[in-house]
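Help! Submission page says 'invalid entity' but I think these are all valid:
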Amino acid sequence: MTLPQVPILPILPELILTLFGIAVMLFDPFTAKPHKSWLSSLAFIGVLAALAGNVLLLAAEGEYYNGMIIVDSFSVFFNFLFLIIAGLSILASRQYLVREGVNHSEYYGLLLFATVGMCFMGGANELIMIFIGLEITSISTYVLAGFRRTDLKSNEAAIKYFLLGSFATAFLLYGIALMYGATHTTHLSQISSALLTGRIDLRLVLAGTALMMVGFSFKVATAPFQIWTPDVYEGAPIPVTGWMSVGPKAAGFAAFLRVFFVALPALDQKWFWVLWVSSVLTMTIGNTAAMLQSNIKRMLAYSSIAHAGYILVAFAALTPNGIASIMFYLLAYSVMNLGAFAVISAWSLSGERRVTIDEFAGLGYRQPWLAAAFTVFLLGLTGIPLTAGFTGKFFMFRAAINSKLYWLTIIALLNSAASLYYYLRPTIAMYMREPGESGRTSAPQDSAPLQISMATKVVIAVSVLAVFYLGLFPSTILDFAQSSAFLVH
Amino acid sequence: MDFFRQHILSITTFTPLVGAFLLLFVGKENKNAIRWIANLFGFLGLLVSLPLWFWYNRADGGFQFIERHEWIKTIGANYSLGADGISLLLILLTTVLGAIAILSSWTAIEMRVKEYYIFLLLLQVGMIGVFCSLDFFLFYVFWEVMLVPMYFLIGVWGSDRRLYSAIKFFLYTLVGSVVMLLGILVLYFHMPEGQRTFDYIQIMNYLHASPLASNIARFVWLAFFLGFAIKVPMFPFHTWLPDAHTDAPTAGSVILAGVLLKMGTYGFIRFSLPLLPNESQYFKGMMAALAIIGIVYGALVAMMQKDWKRLVAYSSVSHLGFVMLGMFCFNPNGVNGSVLQMINHGISTGGLFLIVGLVYERRHTRMISEYSGLSHVMPVYATYFMIIMLSSLGLPLLNGFIGEFTILQGAFQVSYTWAAFAVSGIILGAAYLLWLYQRTMFGEITNEKNKTLKDLNFREVATLFPLVVLALWIGIYPKPFFEILERPVNKVVATVQPDKFTVDSMGNLIVPDKAKANPLPASVPAGTEAAAAIQRDLPTTQSATPGVEKK
Amino acid sequence: MVPLNYFLILAAILFCLGVIGFVMKRNLITMFMSIELMLNSVNLTFVAFSRHINVLSGQIFVFFVMVIAAAEAAVGLAIIVAFYRNRESLNVDEVDRMKL
């Protein structure tokens, strides 16, 4: 008896990440406390190795493991995105973990495992695979959100994320089960062809679609399933919040896009209006609530909701252009948001103090470069030209106009303009107010010079460069996204 | 030299950027080094832009100095620059005012000097870029990017309610521009698939060959209107202007009034009119009404102001109303006057803001009631103020007169009512400016603090002197300016009113035979004759400036 | 033989009970058990469909779901324990350090 040949190439990045994740956790007990930082370097090397492995994937396009995994440029693009996010997050977390006294290497292990799950979501060609990827990501994230285990806020973030996240997963899973019952398969393209035959129970399919939509909406935090976001983002450790706002969200969108465009195009007129309404609600709720926040993490949480709304605008365009622009935007949003959170984490004090917007007063003159970088990220999130945020939004709205979604685009554009109001508030605090003007008296040790580690500096510098690169020369990435979007559509 | 000639627009645009970049590496304690570098690059920016004036071929009304490089191929966006007479004058205005604004800040800014000059230079890049972009995408990038430095200039170095004003300015203009973006995208998707581009000339040609459906075209026109009208600002959208102007630092106000507002009027003449001529015709009445309301309302409100700078700010609303009125006459006189008045307004209102800034720097108040009898202690200052004030109110031999008179001529050809309202605006303008001058410069010095005020030093004179020279030049011999404007303006006019005016490919008006009998169009082959007539025959033009004579 | 619909309706009822339990109950453990109930109702659906269409895959999915539910339970309970240590309470109304 011979064992069947199992190719490992299609899941090479995932395998590498898993091995490194296990290695990080195994080495932890044998590493003395002052040397724990090298484990984060190990994790970072793992990400680099996975990136190299991902390059090899480009030559191995096709379906594998009975169609459970697909390797195409769409999945390769998302793998790149997830790995970049993971790499930047690892670097951005180092200083923070030491400062907060939670420098346990499980953090890096979990981050790598979550990335494995995200890569599976991007490459899944089948509903159960998506479910598994989603759960690998979510379970790791639950722990990461509660990583400051003695802090009540962090506990609460973990509990809320855990309860609502598994609640949403159950919906998704129920949707998958109904879809399976109706079409007798969970393979995406087989579902699509089954739907085209017309010999299926449409009620089951619609119920399944709706339930899956609920599940995905939870994961990407779009209205009306966004309520968990602000609390979880506020309570989770800063680097985790930054990572959560881009990584699992991008993975959710990757799976969302693939399921709806590959498996369910036959029903697109039915879910189009759901997307339309959800998009309007998401943008408007996100932006309105963000204006009222005083905690910067909470503000960025609401802003992240608003950005999911903009992405839905391009989603509702239902075209390859729309998909390509979403892919581009997810990348753009990731670098901007990770950069912004890296700045917040550098400026905050141990115990996560100094995270209200007013407390950014004076940053502009104490740390001009840090403040300038933060300004770039905020303007990028607003969508001011020369930044990735502008090109990203431009491509998305262009796709929407191309599909004649005039009203939706107008609402999105006005929302985007209104978002300026709250993105400017940190800049006002940083440049236009003196420290102490907000009425708070800060302890003397708070005004000690900031120590920013090299790793954090690298993250911020890379993000700034990426923001400008994507804002000035978006062609390469956009063309790649465009070519892969046609595969999905 | 050849390289310079081919890339003069890029070089003009990005020279200030080089300066801003260099400033990054100067230590912030080195305030004087920072000032020297900034001034050097301000002046250099002016210097490299000057050849435009000489190299520009006045016989060709099309775009010149064209540069074109592929940028984002997938969506058809190019880096393409070019200038015709209209943009040329505005570019030069920008470089002149930019250099002056930088020079004027030498002592006014003591805090965060480095950041200040970096933002000022970046602002310069954005503004020049707006005036020479021939690609919608590029245009939009410059158009929005320039908001950022202006926001910081107002917010960090402004006075009183600077935060409020800065945010209001940014939000207002951003709302306008995102709606404009929608219009741009609709035009873009009007192009057939495969040929889609943001190239201005290609879009224009395609639009003329196959126009949009009229309801969509109106929508697009209104989208552009919102973007530009907020910037101008036209009457209902003007509320950001007094705040922003008043609270901005002096150099910021000079740039705001001198150049930024022109971006709106430039937008109308460059995009709305040639791209959507029928809709421009359709909305002509509305535009004229808004312009006239702006003229009268701006003047009346200016008269009520207690704050010197606010008064000048409201006078801008009034003057820009003139520009818009002239433009929507759609005849060569009106449009020529309109463009020239943009330049004039830049010179005289820019100058007025400098004038306010000079005393503000000395006394740190802008209340008119705080000042009186300044001419006793500051005679040089009073003289410059008088010339600039007179140029702003349109005294013959000074620039404002030429612009306003040409606009009035254009308005008369369209409607006597328009012209009558416009004239009333001039009278009111004379009233509030002369009253301001009388209150601040004449009479006894009632305030002790004013007795020891120092008169202008050399640097301060150097900021005002070029403006006075320009004002006199345009006032006495405007022919070179009209020569530059003539053909591009003819082209615009012929696009909007093809039944009345036709042009050849170079932009020369072709006068149809039957029209020769009709004195109206024939008398206006160019603004040059009108302007020449004005100088020959001054007494006949008194009616245009009765306010001056009364005093 | 019991018709397919019976299973489906039973599963739907169980799922709804889970949802109601999750929304109504204030005890963290009970809420968590409600989620488990929802997952198990999905398992029932999978098995029912699998049997109905005579394909084994549905039953295999159930194993996946069970494994994942176990992992989720392990992590979830650990989180709840951590919260309990800090707060000495399992009432969800006391998860209130941040305004909603």
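Support: the input was valid. A stray whitespace character was the problem, and the output above is from the cleaned input. The radius of gyration of chain B is 22 Å.
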